[in-house]
Amino acid sequence: MIAKAFRKTFITPYVIPGRTGTKLEVEDLAILHRKYKNVRAVKEATADLERMAKTRALLGEDFDILSGDDDKTYEMMVRPDIGASGVISVMSNIVPGPIHEMVKAIKDGELQTADRLKGILDPLFKIVAVNTMEAYEGFEVPAKFRNPVPIKTIMKGLGMPSGPCRPPLGKMTPKGIDVVRNALKEVYARDQEVFRPIQEVYRVNIEDRLSTDRYWK
Question: Per-residue confidence at 105, pLDDT binned at 50, 70, 90?
Fold first, then answer.
């Protein structure tokens, strides 16, 4: 076992049943923490807030619960029975500064600032995964574009460096890309400063990128 072999290394199990098809139970996590004190955090991507509250109850206040879902971070941190420490954020590939500011504001008890940032960023949090209905050979079929497909689509469209997804993940459909672009436009309308670092570092015009179709082909 890694935790036993590397006792000076902090180990953070990543619980993501949507990808692995299974999950480490809270009781198993508690046993691991009891035996190996370097297992002192968990990255939670179950979307099960009651499970997270149980984790806090069983593992105590010194154990770090980290959000693995951008759209759950705020609630995980403000709920006193969960008390998450922060987030390992996929959307930080796009807007690291505002997400850091939101998390810091929550930890500092500045909930008015955190609420404002959450309100600006919410459209982005909702497109980590994108669901559409697609017309195909005379049928209407559901399509789901999971992380990192939307994130890489955003990065490419905004002029940031990003390679293709590895198989079996592929590209988004035009309908999926429209969902992503509309979310970006909504955030831009709420606060243009959110994307200013991208504009300055990569020397792109965000408004042009969002409005010009050729960047999203």
Answer: very high
> φ and ψ at 82, to 5 degrees?
-115, -55
**What is the torsion angle, in degrees rounded to the nearest 10, for the CA atoms of residue 87, residue 145, residue 133 and residue 157?**
90
Rg (CA), the chain: 19
* Cβ 76 vs Cβ 65: under 8 Å: yes
User: What is the residue type of 34?
Assistant: R
Whether 78 and 136 share a structural domain: no
Are 121 and 76 in contact by the 8 Å Cβ rule? The answer is: no
Q: Is there a single domain that holds both residue 135 and residue 208?
A: yes
Quote the CA–CA distance of 13 and 90 in Å, as a whole number: 17
Label residues 170-189 b or e (16+ Cβ within 10 Å = b).
Answer: eebbeebbebbbebbeebbe
Residue with tokens 């909702």: 126
Q: Is 144 a catalytic residue?
A: no
The total number of structural domains in the chain stands at: 2
Instruction: List the catalytic residue out of 43, 104, 156, 175.
Output: 43
Q: Is 43 a residue of the active site? A: yes
Q: Which residues make Cβ contacts (< 8 Å) with residue 21, sequence separation at least 6?
A: none
pLDDT digits (tens, 9 = 90+) for 135-161: 989 999 999 999 999 999 999 999 999
Would you say residue 105 lies in a domain?
Answer: no
Task: Tell me: do 83 and 136 sit in the same domain.
Answer: no
Task: Report the predicted TM-score, pTM, of the whole model to 2 decimal places.
Answer: 0.92
